[in-house]
Amino acid sequence: FLDRETLKDIVSFINEKNIHLVCDEIYAATVFTKESSFVSIAEIIDQDIACNRNLIHIVYSLSKDMGFPGFRVGIIYSYNDQVVSCARK
């Protein structure tokens, strides 16, 4: 997992360069220790840093993280209406 400071640096970089960031958080809930160090990019943009949210997109799937092979359910979380509209098709 990436730490909070690294995620802040990435968000600053994509804002400076005006490029999109697709965060694959497919293993977000996979934890092998009692204390999880996972920080979602959603936490960073909601609390820690000002940014253009239209540039950040999060993808997730139940099949790998929850151990449901063959169960194809994916999620795209984005503030960008064009990305969401395209994903619905």
Explain the overall architecture.
Belongs to the class-I pyridoxal-phosphate-dependent aminotransferase family. This protein has 89 residues and is of the alpha+beta class. The chain has one domain (4-87): Aspartate Aminotransferase, domain 2 (3-Layer(aba) Sandwich). 37% of the residues lie in helices and 17% in strands. The chain has 4 helices and 3 strands. The protein has helices spanning 4-17, 41-48, 62-65, 81-87; strands at residues 21-24, 56-61, 74-78. The chain has a 3-stranded mixed beta sheet. Helix 1 (4-17) crosses helix 2 (41-48). It is flat and about 40 Å long. The termini are far apart.
Topology:
Blueprint: H1 4-17, E1 21-24, H2 41-48, E2 56-61, H3 62-65, E3 74-78, H4 81-87
Helix pairs in contact: 1-2
Short description:
The protein is an alpha+beta fold.
Name the CATH class.
Alpha Beta
Mean pLDDT, nearest integer? 85
- By secondary-structure content and strand pairing, the structural class works out as alpha+beta
Q: How many strand elements?
A: 3
**Number of helical elements:** 4
Outline, from the CA principal axes? flat
SS strand fraction: 15-25%
Low-confidence stretches: none
Give Rg in angstroms.
14 Å
Order of helices and strands: HEHEHEH
Instruction: Give the termini separation.
Output: 31 Å
The CATH superfamily bears the name Type I PLP-dependent aspartate aminotransferase-like (Major domain)
Helix content: 25-40%
The domain count comes to 1
Q: Major sheet, described briefly?
A: 3 strands, mixed
CATH architecture: 3-Layer(aba) Sandwich
Report the CATH topology name.
Aspartate Aminotransferase, domain 2
The side-by-side strand order for the widest beta sheet comes to 1-2-3
Cofactor: pyridoxal 5'-phosphate
Pfam families: Aminotran_1_2
Protein name: 1-aminocyclopropane-1-carboxylate synthase
Keywords: Lyase, Pyridoxal phosphate, S-adenosyl-L-methionine
